[in-house]
Amino acid sequence: MDPRPALLAVTAALGSAAPTICLADDFDLPPLVGGAAVAEVPLDVPVEGLAEGDTDDLPAEPAAGRLGNTTLSFELRGVQTKGLDGSSTAALRASAHWFGRVSPAEDVDLVFNLRARAAKIEGDAFSVEDNVRVDVQELALSWRLSPAVTVDLGRLNIRNGVAQGFNPTDWFKADSLVVTDSQDPGDRRRERLGTLVVGGTLTWGSTLIQAGYRPEVDADPGSFLSDMDVVGLGLDRTNPSDAFYLKVTPDLGGNLSLTGNVLVEDGRLGAGLELSAAVGQSLVVYGEAFVQDRRPIAALALSDGAGSAGFRDGVGAGDGFDWLPQVAIGASWSLPAALVGQQDVSLALEYHYNGAGLSGAQIDTLAAAAGADLGAAGAIRGFAAREQEPLAREQVFARFAWNDFMGDADLAAFGFYVPHDGSGLAQISVGVPLNDNAELSLRAFSTFGGRSTIYGANPTEATAQIALIYTF
Amino acid sequence: MTTLLNRREVSKMVLGLAAGAGAFGLALPGQAAMDAAGLLRQADAIRNPQSSFVVDVDLKNYEGRALTGQTKVRTHSRVAGGQFQTIVYITDPAADRGKILLRNGNNLWLYDPASRSSVRISARQRLLGNASNGDVVSSNLVGDYAPEMQGAETIADGDRRNRDCHKLYLTSRDRSTPYSAVEFWVDAANARPVKAKFYTGSGSLIKVAWYRNYGNQMGAQRPTEVVIADGFDPNKVTVMSMSGYSGRDLPASWFTKEWLPRFTL
Lengths: 472, 265
Prior knowledge:
The complex is a heterodimer. By secondary structure, chain A is α+β, with helices and mostly antiparallel strands.
């Protein structure tokens, strides 16, 4: 006779009486846990009585509160910054961020992403004109003309790319940032202005085709469309020229994901693709590339003729249009259970190539800039930062993430490194949920390398930040 | 540590010896005619409707007896080639509202509405407490695993009542499956899933699931709760509660990462 039924019955009886979790090591019995989910089912109630209840019903609307399926969050952030010159500055920033997608009418969606922010910087007098901003990051209408066709009109954050540290195919990232507190590319995707477009999506079988037009917005300085105090839309930044775009995403099924794209910007062609695949349960490999008929960063940054002839020649400021490739390839690896059990720990490593960036010799020229050329060198660095492109032709990126490393707290760290000059940037962040709505966020970053290197020349050498974020 | 191979071999030996003598004294109605794949297919059809559907899922995470977190999602599942494509839309907690997990074959993407961007993730990465991505998305086991019958056992079901079961041993057909092997018990009377033990490639028990609270959903009796215990830390438990199953036509084009910015409930 098998003794297990009797043993189970005894163990079950003990489990019903015991106030603590009851779970045999060999998982013979289901666990008893707090709350109503499991513990309230008494052992002596016939299972069939519970099982046959007709619970068939239509899905209720998800309980997302009065905000529907939009998200409203408030953030209070303290920032301590150490400058390259040794100065130290404190700042307090407050912001409200509201975004989502709602349907004001059948087949019509309103996409919005609005942010209001204020900053008090140590040593500066506070004024609404200078220290308060309202950012219309997105505001667009989307019409479903048919199940296969959707048309969009308005400001949208059109995001491309599969890499984590640098996205060559993300055409519209240039000069779009509204907040630069974080060096994390993931954070910066949230903190940018969208692009004014008219576009649409066509479904052809299981292939998705997206196309659109970005009109040039030529606005006067100080105007509502450009950089008016408080409410300026910054459309001159996000829509500096005409552009047509096309994206095609076939359903390859299984494992591969592919998106091809074409951009025609001011009549000049660019084309790219992004590709990713999973290898087993833990590894994802990916890559994206974009090649465009364009000028290099140094040539664009010094188009006003700044810099001495020798300096300009040394950084390639006279280079004209050429087909310049940009590439990001990498892999992310979730550590296997054999190493970390059920912990969610992942590593990502990427190689970035920017054909428009500086070669080793050009980096040396930049580093050697002196006298009047320092201004030109600063212009190159500033231009690359605004464009959100790597200034060095080659760099590597690594990220470490450990979710729920302590309770529900998440830990993430990442870094960029330029092999040619040994400079880089590293950032670490910890997010500690206080409850379902509130989170405490800690973040610090620092550059490293000599003061004339790619990253070491960053005017902000290091920051430490603490923030309280409340989401409704 | 006992390896999976050893566990399996021992299990086979025990069951092989006992089967001829009517192991555990159980009646096994229809077992002769019931092949393993057929039984697993029946169990799959009970776990999930075999047509496109929408269902709300409430995930409660416990540590010890204490509730440590709760996530609510709505999943949209579309049948494609005997398997499901799934969109998991998070409705709670507030900080994660609007985030989407997409599974299409071995393609897993996490979409962030604040940046309108998607990150490709591996099947091992967890989003929802002790439940893995593979637990939350709909899936049919029969396509991904090769089943074999391992006789009969009486086990404790999700309500701690003894239940006569067929035991199946599922072996992964390729490396893309979430688990290397699964011990799977189905009710001998009606092929309802009762319990499953999931193993990694190294033979480690990674989690144990009990299927319970059967109710009428989309024309069939289906489990409306799955209790998932962490194989490494038995104190960690997730309870998945499903409600509001409804059939719905879902276009194939939704199940690409480029569609996710357009997805609405």
